[in-house]
């Protein structure tokens, strides 16, 4: 383990640091010699789609693009370490639970299907057929299919997702909680209502011609490093890059492109953001409204002086509704409220408004800093309003760009992983497969936890992911999972969800995307959809981590066959013998996938149509809508502040540089200057003083929620940081215990992981009775 140090980093993102970090990870994971070849096959026409993130790559045919995040994700999968039955024989589940998430991950790739044995509290190997038969029998014994939950994480391919939703719907439920519920759900919800489609409208080519790129609540240096390549090119040709973030993220400030030999040789770098607005957490709606207010004021001035209008009157008249009411509301919103709630001055917002008004075409990007708040949907509407004002949708170089996380999270939703499927989609499933799919909406992630807690749901099946650790309210979620009759996880690596299990529990290991997948007809490829709706093929090149592994499509098909038996209308084992057959069925169900097998084999794949990008509005009104929202002044944090004597902070939970969601690769967060420690709390120097504490003190965090439940996360190191006063940041998942299950985004129900009202106490070491609680979060042993 590296030494604990806090040491500010003032170099660029990327550069030699990124190359060194990858070299270290390859060594740590003991990646075999062909690992280098593996890296070179990421995002190549005949290689696999990078499991790192959903950022697209140029035509999917370009030369290898180095990406630290992608390299780590690939190295993690290609590791030589193995978590074999011998490992499980060595430790009871209670003992395993005492280890950290980092340690669990480091045990390596799982090799055998395992079943928990109550008598010895150990996972023991089980044959595939027996596992499927037992799980199927369990599901069939439920009183109703709606007692079962089927979670999906966004790494799974289109083919696996399609078969999975088909199995679950033929089984009889729409209970599809997924990682999207915790991620970009508000983006889909907001855009569907406002613009008629739930996806972004821009393509990479638009980044080449945009005059300005506005980036809200995103840390691409860590989470989407390949995006920095596009931003760098845009910055170099003089486009304005305007960032809104409470933290000054390195990757948004400067970047040294490992692709650029000259920049690397001279230790040079490129400035990324032309303007950086350090707003306060949750202040985006207010800030965007301020930018809009300025734009409308500039428009009124121009009109008064007989100059060309600043807003696009023709576009607004032809394509939108609700402008008059919206403009009146913006005019009525006081600058004082906007300044107080955004944490930015009127002068700063006027500057941002001027940048917006001067730019011929504008792209707005956003990430989790926007989606994980109570008012996320309203904030995304405000972003939509901003774009609509100047017709910045459906023309080159302009449009909304929600930057997705998991590499196929968008595709999984396209394939029907959704708890509220449309009637038209269900009708199509019925026509193609000749069974009656369930119509009743199912549970999302928050609903799934509630339903397990109150006994409405009794079984949990996870296709990928780490539900116990990724979800909010750790104590409640763990109780929910432990209360289940059955928990099953399809997975590549050991994680905490396997240790917080039901009365009957299985771990089913699968192939990763980098591995060769052979079925009846020979080697198979799968398909994925990136954040910009490009669909392309992905084929593994490495030998499977173990001969016992099943591919995800094969695993789902065999489980479906075992569970549904002769009552199924679907030829499961035939379908999975050749994935072209699955794709033919996908093409039958979804019009946009016509001729799927042919089109996906064209290098680069194909683009799914997007009506909003063509200025066709598929919502009920048939128009793009200006959505009116007041700047919120009565959020949980406002109420908590009003009710407390002591300082109440807003805590945002974010990712460090050495993690992939709940997968902890290492203990460093290089760009933020943190080494060897994850339990840190970023805080303004004056706030440390106001608390009467010192940087380096250990503190406990208590979350304030009106439900009265005590939620405490213990032992965080105070780190003085450049962050607005009243705002705190710490890493997820260590802080998930603080996110109340009842606190989620209006309409979209995404947990409010970026705005938790908390108070800070000096750390109190815990007595023995909370050993179980410490075990559950891997705090007992330090590795
Ligand atoms: N290496 C790596 N890559 C990843 C992931 C990973 O964990 N590791 N995860 C993947 C997934 S699933 C996703 S969804 C994406 C996530 O990628 P991002 O969307 O970048 O996610 P976060 O790191 O959670 O936080 C984003 C930023 O929001 C800022 N922020 C916090 N609160 C606010 C706010 O109120 N307003 C504004 N404007 N900003 C705020 C934080 O300072 C941070 O810079 O990345 C994907 N890629
Ligand atoms: N507090 C807080 N909570 C958050 C967030 C936050 O910002 N703050 N972010 C939220 C977001 S954006 C997301 S997307 C969720 C993520 O939630 P999840 O998607 O559930 O979590 P991951 O950590 O991405 O899942 C990692 C696990 O996936 C498994 N895995 C990896 N590759 C494969 C594969 O190829 N196949 C299969 N079957 N399994 C595989 C491994 O077992 C690994 O341990 O977390 C959310 N939770
Ligand atoms: Mo995500």
TrEMBL record:
Keyword Iron-sulfur carried by entry: yes
Molecular function (Gene Ontology), one example: 4 iron, 4 sulfur cluster binding
Cofactor(s) this protein cannot do without: [4Fe-4S] cluster; Mo-bis(molybdopterin guanine dinucleotide)
Domain Molybdopterin dinucleotide-binding stretches: 649-756
Residue stretches making up the Molybdopterin oxidoreductase domain: 109-490
Keywords: 4Fe-4S, Iron, Iron-sulfur, Metal-binding, Molybdenum, Oxidoreductase
Gene Ontology, cellular component aspect: membrane; oxidoreductase complex
Name of this chain's protein: Molybdopterin dinucleotide binding domain protein
Organism: Lysobacter antibioticus
Classification of source organism: Bacteria, Pseudomonadati, Pseudomonadota, Gammaproteobacteria, Lysobacterales
């Amino acid at each position: 383990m590296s030494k604990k140090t806090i040491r500010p980093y003032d170099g660029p993102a990327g550069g030699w640091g990124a190359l060194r970090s990858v070299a270290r990870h390859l060594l740590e994971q003991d990646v075999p010699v062909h690992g280098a070849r593996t890296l070179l096959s990421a995002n190549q026409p005949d290689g696999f789609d990078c499991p790192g993130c959903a950022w697209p790559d140029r035509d999917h045919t370009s030369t290898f693009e180095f990406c630290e995040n992608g390299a780590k994700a690939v190295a993690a999968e290609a590791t030589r370490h193995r978590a074999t039955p011998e490992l499980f024989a060595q430790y009871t589940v209670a003992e395993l639970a005492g280890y950290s998430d980092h340690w669990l991950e480091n045990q390596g790739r799982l090799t055998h299907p395992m079943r928990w044995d109550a008598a010895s509290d150990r996972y023991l190997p089980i044959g595939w057929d027996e596992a499927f038969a037992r799980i199927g029998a369990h599901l069939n014994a439920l009183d109703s299919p709606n007692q079962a939950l089927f979670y999906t994480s966004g790494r799974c391919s289109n083919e696996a997702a399609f078969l999975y939703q088909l199995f679950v719907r033929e089984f009889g439920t729409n209970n599809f909680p997924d990682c999207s519920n915790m991620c970009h759900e508000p983006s889909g919800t907001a855009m569907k209502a406002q613009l008629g489609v739930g996806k972004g409208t821009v393509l990479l080519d638009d980044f080449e011609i945009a005059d300005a790129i506005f980036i809200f609540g995103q840390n691409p240096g860590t989470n989407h490093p390949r995006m920095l390549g596009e931003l760098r090119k845009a910055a170099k040709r003089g486009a304005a890059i305007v960032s809104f973030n409470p933290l000054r993220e390195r990757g948004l400030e400067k970047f040294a492109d490992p692709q650029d030999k000259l920049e690397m040789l001279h230790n040079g770098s490129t400035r990324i953001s032309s303007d950086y607005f350090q707003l306060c957490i949750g202040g985006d709606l207010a800030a965007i409204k301020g930018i809009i207010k300025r734009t409308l004021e500039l428009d009124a001035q121009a009109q008064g002086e007989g100059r060309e209008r600043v807003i696009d009157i023709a576009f607004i008249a032809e394509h939108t509704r609700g402008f008059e009411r919206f403009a009146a509301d913006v005019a009525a919103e006081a600058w004082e409220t906007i300044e107080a709630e955004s944490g930015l001055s009127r002068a700063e917002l006027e500057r941002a408004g001027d940048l917006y008004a001067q730019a011929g075409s504008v792209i707005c990007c956003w990430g989790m800093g926007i989606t994980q708040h109570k008012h996320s949907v309203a904030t995304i509407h405000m972003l939509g309003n901003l774009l609509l004002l100047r017709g910045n949708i459906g023309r080159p170089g302009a449009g909304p760009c929600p930057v997705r996380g998991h590499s196929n999270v968008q595709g999984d939703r396209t394939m029907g992983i959704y708890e509220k499927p449309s009637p038209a989609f269900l009708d199509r499933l019925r026509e193609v497969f000749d069974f009656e799919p369930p119509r009743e909406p199912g549970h999302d992630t928050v609903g799934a936890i509630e339903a397990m807690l109150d006994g409405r749901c009794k079984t949990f099946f996870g296709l990928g992911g780490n539900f116990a650790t990724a979800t909010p309210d750790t104590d409640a979620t763990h109780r929910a999972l432990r209360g289940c009759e059955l928990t099953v996880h399809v997975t590549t690596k050991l994680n905490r969800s396997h240790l917080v299990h039901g009365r009957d529990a299985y771990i089913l290991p699968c192939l990763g995307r980098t591995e060769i997948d052979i079925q009846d007809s020979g080697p198979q490829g799968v398909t994925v959809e990136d954040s910009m709706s490009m669909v392309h093929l992905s084929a593994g090149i490495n030998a499977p981590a173990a001969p016992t592994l099943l591919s995800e499509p094969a695993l789902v098909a065999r489980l479906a066959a075992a569970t549904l038996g002769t009552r199924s209308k679907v030829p499961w084992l035939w379908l999975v013998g050749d994935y072209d057959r699955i794709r033919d069925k996908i093409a039958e169900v979804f019009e946009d996938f016509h001729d799927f097998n042919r089109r996906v084999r064209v290098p680069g794949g194909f683009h799914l149509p997007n009506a909003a990008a063509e200025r066709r509005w598929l919502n009920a009104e048939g128009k793009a809508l200006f959505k009116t929202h007041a700047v919120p002044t009565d959020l949980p944090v406002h109420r908590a502040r009003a009710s407390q004597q002591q300082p109440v902070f807003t805590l945002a939970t974010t990712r460090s540089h050495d993690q992939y969601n709940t997968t902890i690769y290492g203990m460093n967060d290089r760009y933020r200057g943190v080494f060897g420690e994850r339990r840190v709390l970023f805080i303004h120097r004056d706030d440390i003083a106001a608390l009467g504490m010192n940087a380096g003190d250990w503190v406990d965090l208590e979350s304030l929620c009106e439900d009265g439940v005590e939620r405490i996360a213990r032992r965080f190191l105070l780190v003085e940081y450049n962050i607005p006063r009243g705002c705190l940041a710490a890493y997820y998942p260590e802080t998930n215990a603080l996110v109340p299950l009842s606190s989620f985004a209006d309409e979209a129900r995404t947990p409010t992981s970026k705005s938790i009202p908390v108070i800070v106490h000096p750390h109190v070491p815990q007595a023995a009775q909370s050993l179980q609680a410490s075990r559950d979060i891997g705090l007992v042993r330090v590795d």
